[in-house]
Design a protein that fits this description.
Length: 143
């Protein structure tokens, strides 16, 4: 039995519904990155990881992800700067995303919404399963 498939709006998903969705996870804490990657992989997602904002922007251009999960507090470029750069690149301008933060999510919601992101999640309250559900909710809203 294969994992349930969700067709997103990224180029990887458009190629075939049989392929797993590719999630780019940009997170500088290796333990959190491992935890979330494992949860996503168990649900059948392919995970590409980057450990800082610059590497995240480069990985988005190189890996053609279907979705991106971005930590707000990153070295080199913060998560909102990463998101702004992704919105400027025609290859990633419509890439659906959620943001994760260790701080009060309401501090970032207005800026995130201006960049097309409706979900800003608090890391300490977001399990890998809840992250998967947030991704599924967002993909369900994709055109």
């Amino acid at each position: 039995m294969g994992a349930e498939q969700f067709v997103g709006d990224g180029p990887h998903a458009a190629a075939s519904a049989e392929l797993p969705l590719r999630i780019l996870h940009i997170e500088d804490d290796p333990d959190l990155a491992d935890m979330y990657a494992l949860g996503l992989e168990i649900q059948g997602f392919e995970v590409v990881r980057a450990g800082d904002g610059v590497a995240g922007v480069q990985a988005a251009a190189a890996s053609c992800p279907d979705f991106v999960v971005i930590d707000i507090s990153l070295p080199l470029l913060d998560g909102l700067q990463v998101l702004a750069r992704l919105r400027q690149d025609p290859r990633t301008t419509g890439l659906p995303a959620v943001l994760l933060t260790a701080f009060n999510p309401s501090d970032y919601r207005q800026r995130a919404a201006a960049l097309g992101v409706q979900e800003v999640l608090l890391k300490s309250e977001t399990t890998p399963g809840e992250l998967v559900e947030a991704i599924r909710r967002r993909l369900a809203r994709s055109p």
